[in-house]
Design a protein that fits this description.
456 residues, alpha+beta, 5-stranded mixed sheet, elongated
Length: 456
């Protein structure tokens, strides 16, 4: 039997009618009412959970939108082009850089194929990149795109696989960077480098000619002595020839014995005959000396043609020192302490130039000294040969020590030096995988050390 109960007879917390805002309900027994209270509590919990889930969903949705906006902003700001394609090459997404390149709107680009924008000659290369990208490999290559205003733009492309949320490959992602301007800049840089090399070769040739000019003065002294000697002997032999002809003519014409004897004494035929052999020997010696000087000049041609060969360093050193001293007309004491049988694989003319430049600089450094000296030594150091050229000149200032091998740097007065001698010396030594250094010695002058690999 159902019983109606006034809500005022029960506690407010247990009044179900109050909870559902009804004026009155049928009374329930204790178990039924407890069940409904439990249901309402469960509903309140579910509702609260829904509110929390909705809040979390709105927060995550806001974060997702923010992340999407951030990614879109980053993609839009990237100067490199970005293209997302399907397996058939159909474009699904591009960034503004690509739209700017082709001069089209995004709506017209989406749905077209990537191959529509590549020139015909690069079609196979584009297919290769796309195929490799879809297979999961990352490939790089250059593609020429049809750009706006009927232009062609070369891009360095990189192709990788495009995945979905389940890591399934859907297509490929291509990124690219325009390199047309870069190539033009590279070509301009390459051309400038070639012009610089040409100018460098001209400067080197000019310095070679200057070096030859400095040595010619010494060679002129060297040639003058044997040539003068030969010329004097030839003049004497010519005079002897005339006396012998006169004597032989008299003999052939049947002159008497007394007349022939007088001619023999008067023309000094016996002295002539005894003097002819020494004169001829001296003349041949002078001619040999001239021939040797000419050979040295040929070695001093600085030619780089032909293969390198083993160069006798001791012989080249002594010849270079002799020529440098003659060219400078130096009064300094020059000493050589050189080990024999030291050979380097080189062009002999270049080794001449290295030695002459170093010795000439040392002689210039002591030119104004009363007791100036220059010492040159060569020693074997393991698999290398060390050449040391030192002097007792004023030395090199510490502020200039790092500049001596720079082109056009010189401490000489204007017109006395080009500033290229030590730079060329440095370049030649570097070409032979050698090393050249400079320091001030204890005597106060400069000391140059050159290391060159020994010939195998």
């Amino acid at each position: 039997m159902t019983k109606v109960i006034d809500k005022t007879d029960r506690p407010a917390g247990e009044d179900l009618a109050g909870k559902v805002s009804l004026p009155s309900v049928f009374a329930l027994d204790g178990s039924g009412e407890a069940m409904w209270v439990d249901v309402i509590h469960r509903m309140e919990e579910v509702y609260s959970e829904l509110l929390r889930n909705e809040t979390d969903l709105e927060r995550k949705n806001a974060e997702l939108e923010e992340a999407q906006t951030f990614i879109s902003s980053v993609v839009a700001s990237v100067s490199d082009i970005l293209i997302a394609c399907g397996r058939d090459g159909v474009i699904h997404k591009v960034n503004p850089a690509f739209l700017t390149l082709v001069g089209m709107e995004e709506a017209k680009v989406i749905g077209t194929r990537i191959f529509d924008y590549v020139i015909e000659a690069d079609r196979k290369e584009a297919e290769r990149l796309m195929s490799a990208g879809q297979q999961g490999r990352v490939l790089e290559g250059d593609l020429h795109f049809r750009a706006a205003a009927n232009r062609e733009e070369c891009l360095a492309m990189r192709c990788a696989a495009l995945f979905d949320s389940r890591r399934r490959r859907l297509g490929a992602v291509l990124t690219g960077r325009p390199i047309s301007e870069l190539r033009q800049a590279y070509q301009a840089l390459h051309q400038a480098h070639l012009e610089l090399q040409t100018a460098q070769r001209k400067l080197i040739e000019q310095e070679k000619m200057a070096s030859l000019g400095r040595l010619v003065a010494g060679v002129a002294h060297e040639l003058n002595n044997p040539i003068s000697f030969v010329y004097a002997n030839i003049y004497t032999l010519d005079r002897y020839r005339k006396n012998l002809v006169s004597y032989l003519d008299a003999v052939h014409q049947g002159a008497g014995e007394d007349e022939i004897a007088d001619l023999r004494r008067g023309l000094k035929i016996d002295s002539i005959l005894s003097d002819i052999a020494p004169l001829l020997e001296g003349t041949l010696e002078g001619a040999d000396r001239v021939s040797e000087i000419v050979k040295n000049l040929r070695r001093l041609s600085f030619s780089e043609t032909g293969e390198r060969h083993a160069v006798d360093l001791d012989r080249v050193l002594r010849n270079s020192t002799h020529l440098a001293v003659r060219a400078k007309n130096a009064m300094a004491e020059v000493s050589i302490d050189s080990d024999a049988n030291l050979f380097v694989d080189a062009h002999e003319g270049q080794i001449h130039q290295v030695l002459v430049n170093l010795i000439a600089n040392a002689l210039d450094a002591v030119a104004d000294r009363q007791n100036g000296w220059v010492e040159i030594t060569t020693r074997q150091r393991g698999d290398s040969v060390e050449i040391v050229v030192s002097d007792n000149g004023p030395g090199i200032a510490e502020t200039e020590m790092n500049k001596v091998f720079e082109p056009f740097f010189t401490t000489k007065d204007v017109g006395e030096g080009t500033g290229l001698g030590l730079w060329i010396t440095f370049t030649i030594v570097q070409d032979y995988n050698g090393e050249i250094t400079v320091r001030n010695n204890e005597a106060g002058g400069a000391e140059f050390h050159v290391l060159l690999p020994l010939a195998r």
